[in-house]
Sequence to fold (273 residues):
Amino acid sequence: MKVSRRHIASLIAKNLEDNKEQLTDQFRASENTIGYFVLDGLLPNELAKRIFDNFPLVDKAKLKKSLREHKYVAYQMDKYNRILEETIYAFQDERVVQLIQEICGLKNVYPDEHLYAGGLSMMKKGNFLNPHLDNSHDKDRNRWRVLNLLYYVTPGWKKEYGGNLELWPDGVRGEHITMTSNFNRLVVMATHQSSWHSVSEIINGTMARCCVSNYYFSDSPIKSTDSFHVTSFRGRPSEKIKNVLLRTDYKLRSFLRILFKKGIRENPHKYKK
Fold:
């Protein structure tokens, strides 16, 4: 049976609408630091499981491995099962965008059809994502990145497996908030100059943590104090030497972006239709 993005979007929109007051309260309670909300049971479990079952194997994805991160990504969606593309673009349906925009108290929010830095991510044992701030803009540096949507689909995922989203509301030297990558869970978080976040190292070796991700952009930043920046990584509090290396890496990449507004080379992480 074919499942269309319109149908999936209708299911998402209904769930958001049914929980709109609660989700709005969640976001408002946290918006002074890193605004976010969490919605469990986003889609019928059977559909969420079907999405997971059709994720590509890691050998069909692109490996990103460095001091900053270790994970697998996929974004050329026409290479994979159709349900994955339909799911990703369901989050770009105008009804879904409008509801999330309202929940987060934003205006003039736009999805990204090019999936710049979005798409699918898979993480297995030993994979991680160090604390970082997302790139402030879209691929053409015209709009501000304002929201990060993460939809987790690995059945039976537990906190002790690792691979969980971590928010650092007081900066990387403070305490973090852990949000387990639970099956069929949607997390929406604000992206701005202070929205440090990371993914803990995966300990479980029997399955991959699979996530469908989207970014939303706007004509204006969430915070008036925001300024342009490239993706900025830091070491964890215990990673002193790594932190120095990542700070140096950030300064170098920032300097290059002053010289070359759109970078030395085009970022390949986008869907070329």
Remarks:
- The first strand starts at residue 36 and ends at 40.
